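Work Package 3 (structural annotation) set out to generate three-dimensional models for the target panel prioritized at the project kickoff. During this period the team completed the workflow that converts sequence records into discrete structure tokens, so that structures can be stored uniformly alongside our sequence database. As a representative example, we reproduce one entry of 166 residues exactly as it appears in the project archive.
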Amino acid sequence: MICPVCRFGNFPGDDTCANCGADLWNVDTPQGITTFRGQLLGMHLDELGAPAPHLIDAGASVEEALRRMQGDGVDCLLVTDAGALVGIFTDRGAILQVAGRPIAGLTLRDVMTPDPVILRGGDPVAVAIHKMAVGGFRHVPFVKDGVPVGVVSAKDVFRHLVADLA
């Protein structure tokens, strides 16, 4: 067992450090990792700095959506109707819903994932991770007052956490 004071290697079960005499009584008792948990649970999504969403109308053609995704270099579009979030269209959805089908005449309303799971500004990052893990999502819309203001991606969340822990 390593002494937390002098870093001396003691025998397992020693009550005091043989080098400096420090108390080792509870050193081998598992402790919660409060610093990581605090960063993870304490940071709200407002602080994450989610990028602005790429919005598209529900009546837009699938061809237009694919062209925009490719042109803008994004893998997710938030689908709106009169400014309200009604769905999400991702590269994964394009493969599962569109591949192999003729797309002439198809609108996003026909192939989007309707009523997506959302995140709110007061949600901690842990909620985003939980929703992504449970739902199998890589992107979750971030809304304020019902209006889409960003898309939180798994890549962004984990990049931020790794940067904070480094």
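The chain is about 35% helix and 20% strand.
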